[in-house]
Amino acid sequence: MISTSDLRKGVAIELDGELWQILDYHHIKMGRGSAQVRIKLRNIKRGQTVERSFQAGEKWPRAQMDHRQIQFLYKDGSDYYFMETESYEQFSLTAEQLDDAVNYLKESMLLDRTSYEGETIGVELPVTVDLKVIETEPGFAGDTQSGARKPATMETGLTIQVPIFVNEGDLIRVDTRTGEYQTRL
Questions:
Q1: CATH fold of 128-184
Q2: I need a surface site. Which of 9, 22, 56, 92 has the fewest CB within 10 A?
């Protein structure tokens, strides 16, 4: 069980028979009466986001999520194929199930599969991914009017802003949480 005093961002709870992830929470103390907690929740299966208020001290069952290491194999149309590293079981997920993770997937990449009661909920990417720049404009010395940034397209199709010294063919590190350039390798 998880109570309002144990809340953390990212924790999954069971509420009204469905699986919800805590996005944000605030403890609110009224002048009179008991304290309340306002929680922003996202339905993991449907993607719906809601805000709800609860009395302080209320408890919910913590969702038991299963995490296993998997390897990304290949993409075929809108399906992405993976393999569990322990059992060698192969399975596929759609682009809709993977959401933004499709922008960072490279063949042979290791990541974590998150499942609940045998059903895959999603994948957890590493914090950073090394991607090759396949298209960008050349940078010119002294061109700092635009904040010394330019758009670059990665090998996965992701387009991000990079410093002007980054060229086509360069390998760069990208933060998967924010989608921002980290460093050139």
A1: OB fold (Dihydrolipoamide Acetyltransferase, E2P) (2.40.50)
A2: 9
pLDDT in tens, 47-56: 788 898 888 8
Q: How crowded is residue 5: how many other Cβ atoms within 10 Å of its Cβ?
A: 10
- CATH for 2-60, among 2.30.30.30, 3.40.50.2000, 2.40.170.20, 3.40.710.10? 2.30.30.30
End-to-end CA distance of the chain: 45
Backbone φ and ψ of 78, nearest 5°: -100, 10
**pTM of the prediction?**
0.69
Is 143 a residue whose pLDDT tops 60?
no
